[in-house]
Automatic annotation (TrEMBL):
InterPro entries tied to this protein: Niban-like, Niban_1/2/3_dom
Organism the protein comes from: Brachypteracias leptosomus (short-legged ground-roller)
Gene that this polypeptide is encoded by: Fam129a
Domain Niban 1/2/3: 9-154
Protein name according to UniProt: NIBAN protein
Pfam families (UniProt xref): Niban2
Family: Belongs to the Niban family.
Amino acid sequence: ATVSEPAQKCCTENIQPFLTSILEELMGPVSSGFTEVRSLFDKEVNEIIQDFQKTNDIMKLKENVDQLINLPFNSVKMEPCYLKVNLLQELLQDLKSRFKVYHIDFVIQRTQNFMQELMENAVYTFEQLFSPSRQADSAKVATTLEKVKLRVLK
């Protein structure tokens, strides 16, 4: 009871007025990181589609889809996504001094973990939606790949 009123007053006067601008500032790098994840998934699936259209090789397609499952764990390919979020380091330094925000590295690491999780979910969903179509006529496979990709991106 003794602390509640002063704490509420402090939050109302010193923190709440800045929350919207802080959130907007932080969402820029986070959004660009997640957009990069989406672009990477799109690029990788497009390469699989193009490779299949050139070769019509179902076995090669299966290998490529199986390799796609490893995409979230491929640090080289995921690095551009993670770098977008590293901009939070600079933004959070200002918050650290103004609002005593600590554990900046933890915020960045958790965001990158969510990005990896999103990619895991995307490739898993792609594989699950596409796997019944692997046995289909090769003329329909490319169209199915594209439809599945668009469904996952949606």
